Amino acid sequence: MSFMAKAAGRIKIFMAQTNLLVGAIDANATKVISCAKEAIKQGGDIVVFPELTLTGYPPEDLLLRPGLDLRIQKALDRILDARLAIVIVVGAPQREHGQLHNSALIIESGKCLGVYHKQALPNYQVFDEQRYFTAGSDPCVVSLKECEVGLTICEDLWDGGPVRQASKKGAQILINLNASPFHHNKLEQRQKLLSRLAVTHKLAIVYVNLVGGQDELVFDGGSMAVDSHGEVRVQAPCFIESLSLVDCVLPEASGNFLRIVPVVPTATVKPLAQVYDALVLGTRDYVKKNGFNQVILGLSGGIDSALTAAVAADAIGPENVNAVMMPFEFTSELSRNLASRQAEDLGINYCEIPIDDAFKAFEISLQNQFSGLERDITEQNIQARCRGVLLMAISNKKNFLVLTTGNKSEIAVGYSTLYGDMAGGFNVLKDVSKTLVYDLARYRNEKLCKGDKIAIPQAVIDRAPSAELAPDQVDTDSLPTYDVLDLILEHYIENDDSAQEIIAKGFDKEVVERVLRMVDLNEYKRRQSPLGIRLTERGFGRDRRYPITNGWPLLD
After folding, report:
1. Which residues contact 424 (CB under 8 A, 6 or more apart)?
2. 321-325/295-298 β-pairing
3. Top-level class of domain 7-267
4. According to CATH, what is the number of the domain 273-475+523-527?
5. Catalytically active residues, by annotation
6. What pTM was computed for the model?
């Protein structure tokens, strides 16, 4: 089939890629009305919002609150009462015959033209929609502006069945409402899926995604429109709110393809930049949406705290970041100099609080209990806990959110101190491996430097990583080199490979067994750690739910 030389008309669809606050139903409705009015000003016929627009995503057990239905209805009444001269496609929970559905509603000029109930309810990784919703079974295809428009919601695309239903019912355009969280290479996965479905079913797809941070999840936006030939014609930016036009040319007669007027797509952001942008957005939204204005962190002169400080400064402004160097007798002068230099270059607030007196006070208090016992890792942990107490005290007094600085590699094997460096409210690097930490530090310096000031001193990147809790201590005293460790962890945590499978890939048997034992034994620590930004498909938290108490053998 080919395009007719003459088109019957156009339909202008605006993708409202919005950042919503979970549970703020009235405020989210206000944003819907505001965006719809702006779309009207720009000549829009349809404006589409993300999945579960009114509740935000994921609403989790807020869906079980008794006041849910009333609050949703009041918000929908506000949108209906506005009588806006544009078709609004908005997501909201809807109860039908006593069952709650994840739904999309079509509203125009004060009337509801149709309702679609999501059919494919994901129940894997971070999703547990079957806990709350009942699946729909029927397609929804509505004639809008002389065009047959079908509705689907997020997972419906990945399942495929609802798309076939809409296509068979005559849909020319498929509108898909999404709350699709970011992970590495997710944007490319979506593009490939949409292209395949569009070609298979000979329809255009308008894909509208949520943007913003919600606890450990980051929604990256990246809304797009794909024509029936599988070409991305419109690509919204990632990690920011946007109102993007999809200008569709309608065929003169049935049987001809609908055409999307190409817009120069937003340049594809490289993977490392995507990860960094996700960290910045996730940090900003967690801090701001939870009512904090400033953050505090321990700045050690090491790579992890250095990257955390840079992300925080980019997220909420350097003037709102407070860094504390807490030296002890094992803290090198190099560490102190690097921490103060970085703070000055970033423009963040900086101070030093030695922990010598606090540590001595603990030693005095414990001297009877420790009498006759050798010094060991206990004393190292006390140092870390002294620092945790200081940061939490400042947090309490000044209402600063404490950012912890541990990375995924350390958290995986328990190379951290419970109630010490793990004490805090949010972990920016929780799903960032140590090797990726270095890559991101270099990226921040190369791509985002400001004038002659560098975000992370090169000496921080070049020096051997150390907790500096003992004389001449380096991380490799306790762990394999990070290039080896991170590969083993990727196989075990993200790929679910067994010990035998990892060993078969060429890794040393003793090293593999040691690493995997550390991972399994330290689940109790991870359960007590602050939440942090999810970047992979198997982050610690919602993705990976491992029993603390278990008898599963490491080697079968």
Report:
1. 297, 388, 391, 392, 395, 401, 402, 403, 404, 530
2. parallel
3. alpha beta
4. 3.40.50.620
5. 51, 118, 154
6. 0.93
